[in-house]
Specification:
α3 packs antiparallel against α4, α4 packs antiparallel against α5 and α6 runs parallel beside α7. The protein has 3 domains: 118 residues, no CATH class; 68 residues, Helix Hairpins (Orthogonal Bundle); 143 residues, Heat Shock Protein 90. It is rod-shaped and about 140 Å long. The longest helix has 98 residues. It is built from 9 helices and 7 strands; from the N terminus they run αααααβαββαββααββ. With 366 residues, the protein is an alpha+beta fold.
Length: 366
């Protein structure tokens, strides 16, 4: 509103100034009057450009009204001169009207183009959002296809491996009864039983990826679970020449969760960190108690993960290790998500990796 008022004031002042020049300049200086009467075109054109057809016509009429007394009373009696001045007034109105009409049409066309551009931009944003949803759905379909294939493989493994393993373990337990602890054959049979259990756990990992396992909620101390894992991997860290540091910050408490599954998830993360950290490096585990639950950060100063690999590390069977299965992080994320938590990874080549796990407090159910 204020710019319009300023423009109207400027037009009024310019018309008044030009008119005063006419009325105060002697008539014998006719060449100056010829110049002054051309000055009126400036406010007329400006009014037409600023306010369109109505603005240009209104300004030209105001100029005509202000300029007409000068013609009648100061140039009276000179018919030829008067006709020239009156024709100038007609031109004022023609220029004001035509310029205003053209400016108004140009403004309307610009507005229409702007609205079209906004519509196209909005359509582009909708198409972009739909494209992102399609990409996300395709990614889910690919993941589901992989899980479906994994499910078929797990079913075959369950039938072809677990049954023989059960027979081997049962036979070994029968043979163990013939020997006493301390006997070398007793120890060999114990190793055989433990190895069958280990192979059975490998098969269970495939089954966990194939179908969501229910989480058994029990009182669980995150600090105790992490301390247990640190104790378990301490020897491996020393052999690799890597320092292992655990930092529980603040007052700690417990959550309702499946301690065994959480130990498996944390162990997968720490083993990956140890394997990625060179000799003399550091792997740190920071545990923080927050209002909503717990936040655990696993940091290493290893080689880091390339950006193209970072987007795929949670895919089943995807691995950059020659001896890896590509199931560790996939299983870990499923366990964390089954507890209502979230797992994030930040990494850059040469700068190490940080894995963040957020676990919410679970309400007790009666």
């Amino acid at each position: 509103m204020k710019p319009s008022v300023n423009r109207i004031a400027l037009l009024g002042i310019s018309i008044l100034g030009i008119s005063l020049l006419h009325y105060l300049t002697p008539l014998h200086l006719h060449y100056l009057h010829d110049i002054f009467q051309r000055f009126y075109y400036l406010p007329i054109i400006l009014a037409a450009l600023w306010f369109g057809f109505r603005g240009g016509l209104t300004c030209s009429l105001v100029v005509s009204i202000v300029y007409a007394p000068h013609i009648l009373f100061q140039w009276g009696g000179h018919l030829t001169v008067e006709m020239e001045k009156y024709m100038e007034i007609v031109l004022y109105n023609i220029v004001g009207s035509v310029t205003g009409l053209l400016a108004q049409r140009e403004r309307e066309k610009s507005l229409e183009l702007q609205q079209t551009a906004e519509g196209l931009e909005e359509s582009y944003k909708k198409l972009q959002a739909q494209s992102e949803r399609i990409i996300a759905i395709e990614e889910q379909l690919r993941r589901s296809e992989k899980l479906s294939t994994l499910g078929e493989m797990a079913a075959v493994l369950a039938h072809e491996i677990r049954n023989p393993l059960g027979s081997i373990r049962g036979t070994a337990e029968i043979l163990r009864d013939d020997y006493r602890p301390g006997d070398s054959k007793y120890e060999f049979i114990e190793i055989q039983i433990k190895e069958t259990e280990r192979l059975n756990h490998v098969v269970e990992d495939f089954l966990r990826m194939a179908r969501q396992q229910p989480v058994e909620l029990r009182d669980c101390s995150i600090r105790e679970e992490l301390e247990t894992i640190v104790t378990l991997v301490a020897k491996d860290a020393r052999q690799r020449g890597v320092s292992l540091k655990f930092e529980p910050n603040g007052e700690q408490g417990g959550i309702r969760g499946d301690g065994e599954k959480l130990r498996q998830a944390f162990l997968n993360i720490i083993i990956n960190a140890l394997q990625a950290t060179p000799q003399g490096g550091l792997v740190s585990i920071v545990l923080n108690k927050v209002e909503s639950g717990f936040e655990i950060r696993f940091n290493d100063n290893g080689s880091g993960i390339a950006q193209e690999n970072l987007q795929r590390i949670f895919e089943p069977f995807y691995t950059t290790k020659s001896d890896g299965t590509g199931l560790g992080l996939a299983v870990t994320r499923k366990i964390v998500e089954a507890h209502g938590g979230k797992l994030d990874i930040e990494s850059e080549p040469g700068s190490g990796t940080t894995v963040s796990v957020s676990l919410p407090l679970q309400e007790r159910t009666s």
